[in-house]
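In this section we walk through a basic example: taking a raw amino acid sequence and producing a predicted 3D structure, encoded as discrete structure tokens. The instruction is simple. Fold the sequence below.
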Amino acid sequence: MHIKGLVAGLFVAGLLASCAPSIAVKYDYDPKVNVRQFSTYRIEADRQRNADPIVGSNLNQRRIAEALDQSLQGLGYKPTEDIGADLVVRFFTDSKDRQQVQSTGMGSPYGWGGWGMGGYGYGNQVYSRQYEENRVVINIYDSRTNNIVWQGWATGQLNTKKNERNRDLAFRETVASIMKNFPQSAGQDYGAAR
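The resulting token sequence is shown next.
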């Protein structure tokens, strides 16, 4: 009996580890905006919203800004520090504590013998795991109107990488996965990029 419970417990622990939340990417845009008019950009961290001391740190803000710069240049946009850039790209990060609950759902609460007959049952075992969920949000504004023309965000666990090189890679890949939904190159509208 104890061996079966131990095996079931190890199975659930492995299941919890394998079911850890992955990075989910979503985006939204204004279909009325003609993206062909944009060719230059400037990047700014949204300093008012980067309140998380770890994911919103200056180090991670630089990682995100560098990855954004690389993605946008790869799409054909040109960076500028000038206030007259066509697009203003602002980003922020935040974090929330989350809990994942898993139940084994094995066996009957009444035992092997059935209703009222006793026996060797092992009831439902519930396991939980605490984790930090991070979010990177990228807002792209038309600098003339200050209206958002595109927004992309990723939600998941970014702060689990143990060494700096992997953390660099995690942020670079996260930003790239968000920006792959932005139009393919300057001068194309959303319909042409699909």
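Looking at the output, two observations stand out. Residues 5-21 have pLDDT under 50 and may be disordered. The two ends are 57 Å apart (CA to CA). In the next section we compare this with other chains.
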